[in-house]
Amino acid sequence: MPTTPSSMLALFAAQVQRRPDAPCLAWDHTTWTYHELQTQALGVAAGLRAWGLTAGERVALALDNGPEFVLAYLGIGWAGGVAVPVNTQYRAGELRHILNDAGAALVISSGQAVEEIAALRPELPALRDWVVVGAEHGGALPWSSLLAPPTSLPLPDPTSLALLVYTSGTTGRAKGVMLTHANLAANIQAVSQAWGWAATDRLLLMLPLFHVHGLGVGLHGTLSNGGSVDLRPRFDPLEALTTLASGKVSLFFGVPTMYSRLLAQAQARPDLRPQGVRLFVSGSAPLSPDVFQAFESVFGQTILERYGMTETGMLTTNPLHGPRRAGTVGRPFPGQAVLVGSPSQPASTGQVGPVWVAGPNIFSGYWQNPEATRAAFEGEWFNTGDLGFLDEAGVLTLVGRARELIITGGFNVYPREVEETLLTHPGVAEAAVIGLPDPDLGERVVAVVVVGRPEGPMPTADDLMEFCRAQLAPYKKPRQVIFAAALPRNAMGKVRKDVLQRELSER
């Protein structure tokens, strides 16, 4: 591990020097070499500079997977800006908060996000311009407006801000996680060392690039190690299984839902089995022991489960070589540290407590939120908000989350946000949102609702699901609505979600 700070762009530039003509990025029927990708990214950087982007300004990327995302992301870094990746499933309320909180000067968008941003323009005072990829839209600049002749630009200061990624807290309001170029480089170097990432590796990447799993691991790992990435628009189980069986890829990263759907597809296609894939990695949500064991039985390989989060990147990993245990998330990556309990009083072996982490990968704080930053740190140690225990070998097992986070299909859902949406319906008096186990998604979002506000109609379950669908990203809407006469509460009036989860799990 290097002792001096670096940046992901510096690692990428070094690979361009070593292997300029090697394949780097494949999309559809086009492949970019390392030299071609750098040249086009520098052209976007020049275009951003000509547009007027100044050092430290934020550029939001509300983009679906595609070469434009990669070029825009790299170009922003070379131009000295800060990339703000945004989930393209977000709706107006979510986009309004993130774009205004970040003070985004420019947004580059595609897909569903285009119409949402068009409607929001009057409510985004900091936004100076808007670029649309893949289509034309009145009032927006075309993608071609950012393409300029490439010019040589200095690499960014490793200590400067590279990414501002929004992640919600238990209050339901998304917080901006500040990640420096050095944070990103340190993390991917640790991951590469632990997983033996090499220039000979080819990654099938079906994860969204707006998520740190796809961007901070998949793309960063490829560009910094000289390998190649086969980027796809989204996950499709038959397409994934067919590609994995082609013998042309060596790495696949996914969330547990992807693996359960791969297994289901494999039952229908016994003629398709992975060939030449040396590593399957799962993260972003707990992998069930059933899926772990079924995958080994069907495919003859075990999935490597790891643990990470937006604020830290990747934290722990099961071993590349040696047995991997279902239900555990392994030991810290090189150069990082994990403890359970508290920094001043670590828990004993096997004792459950809060999980704390430290290392050069840890974010520098929450954007414009010093109070939340202070609350999350004790010296160099960051409180993940998760609960777990360490065994005698230092292997971490997670047992729950101190926060009320629901992870469904690899995406984070915070109950308060869904509850507040439900409470705006005139027929809802009270609402409690919980996660219940789901064999496909890991957890499904379930709303327990008390109806009967006198000024409103009596809604049906379908009414409330459709109401949420119109205001929230699809993965956030309840997949089940249960009506109750009252919500269980403690002596202080707080809803006992543990009681709801226990009662509903037993049904």
Structural summary, described in words:
The protein is α/β, with parallel strands linked by helices. Strand 20 (377-378) and strand 21 form a beta hairpin. Among the domains are: 8-18 and 28-183, Rossmann fold; 329-402, Luciferase, Domain 3 (Luciferase, domain 3, Roll), CATH 2.30.38.10; 406-505, ANL, C-terminal domain (GMP Synthetase, Chain A, domain 3, 2-Layer Sandwich), CATH 3.30.300.30.
Mean pLDDT: 92
Radius of gyration: 23 Å
CATH architecture of the domain at 8-18 and 28-183: 3-Layer(aba) Sandwich
By secondary-structure content and strand pairing, the structural class works out as: alpha/beta
| Termini gap | 51 Å
Shape: globular
Alpha plus pi helix count: 14
CATH superfamily of the domain at 8-18 and 28-183: ANL, N-terminal domain
- Arrangement of strands in the largest sheet: 2-1-11-10-12-13-14-15-16
- Give the CATH level 1 class of the domain at 8-18 and 28-183: Alpha Beta
Find the count of extended strands (DSSP E, 2+ residues): 27
CATH topology name of the domain at 8-18 and 28-183: Rossmann fold
Helix content: 25-40%
What's the story with the biggest beta sheet?
Answer: 9 strands, mixed
What is the strand content?
25-35%
Point out poorly predicted stretches.
none
Q: In brief, what are we looking at here?
A:
The chain is α/β, with parallel strands linked by helices and 507 residues long. Among the domains are: 8-18 and 28-183, ANL, N-terminal domain (Rossmann fold), CATH 3.40.50; 329-402, Luciferase, domain 3 (Roll), CATH 2.30.38; 406-505, ANL, C-terminal domain (GMP Synthetase, Chain A, domain 3).
